[in-house]
Amino acid sequence: xxxxxxxxxxxxxxxxxxxxxxxxxxxxxxxxxxxxxxxxxxxxxxxxxxxxxxxxxxxxxxxxxxxxxxxxxxxxxxxxxxxxxxxxxxxxxxxxxxxxxxxxxxxxxxxxxxxxxxxxxxxxxxxxxxxxxxxxxxxxxxxxxxxxxxxxxxxxxxxxxxxxxxxxxxxxxxxxxxxxxxxxxxxxxxxxxxxxxxxxxxxxxxxxxxxxxxxxxxxxxxxxxxxxxxxxxxxxxxxxxxxxxxxxxxxxxxxxxxxxxxxxxxxxxxxxxxxxxxxxxxxxxxxxxxxxxxxxxxxxxxxxxxxxxxxxxxxxxxxxxxxxxxxxxx
Length: 330
Hints:
The structure is a single chain. The chain is an alpha+beta fold. It is 62% helix and 6% strand. It has 16 helices and 4 strands. Strands 1-2-4-3 form a 4-stranded mixed β-sheet. Helix 1 links the parallel strand 1 and strand 2. Helix 1 crosses helix 2, helix 9 crosses helix 10 and helix 12 packs antiparallel against helix 13. The N and C termini lie far apart (62 Å).
């Protein structure tokens, strides 16, 4: 089966995320791709989150006519694009179900996702979702394979089965060389979930995923090498991996880069990475940036700017920032 694009929006600003969404859909529609997965995170409580705004963005006139269906997942959305082949058929649930019965891999995936999302029969049905996703996965669809593995690993609405989840991740990694699957395999080996713990195998799979640009894998391998508790410490390689992940807007990696430069007493470089994470709404980074403005570390001292960042951090529940903000406003 062909690989379908997966685009990570979760650490971008709202403006950048919407722009990338529109560009990606336009480009893939022109290339006659059938679907795209957008990773958004799952913070529905925040009305300013990418996940909350995504359903509105897909109605933008620039892309609305290209989209056949938008189905919500945990922390992601799957966009199905219209094609010249019977594009109206998938809008009819009866036709979709018949196509799934007839072993159409896309229909099986879409039907499974609709059961998972609750957009079929207006209620979620994880067991029915698993049934159809498995059928699609058995035909080699990488997205279905990953979703089956996720369902079995999480055990929400279905029997939790880490061992079977591991097998599906292995299949996705082996058949499709999927970096998400490789990352999850690495974590399962590292933690001994669904498979006997094997740190060497964990490292091998995590490194494969990191090499393909998976930012969480880069962060995990970086942490393992930086700490030196399981593997021989290699600070230089760890920092290279942190930097690679940070450049992909991985907030945790940006924070680590900031802390690394603080230890090296290079406040200007520390400020660069901490500011990046703060602008991506990390409360820890916002608190640290407030401290740097308050103390004049790496930047001209500016108490008003410091207060601004302390307040932004406090609004997200950061304890120390809340104490400082309360003291300054009373």
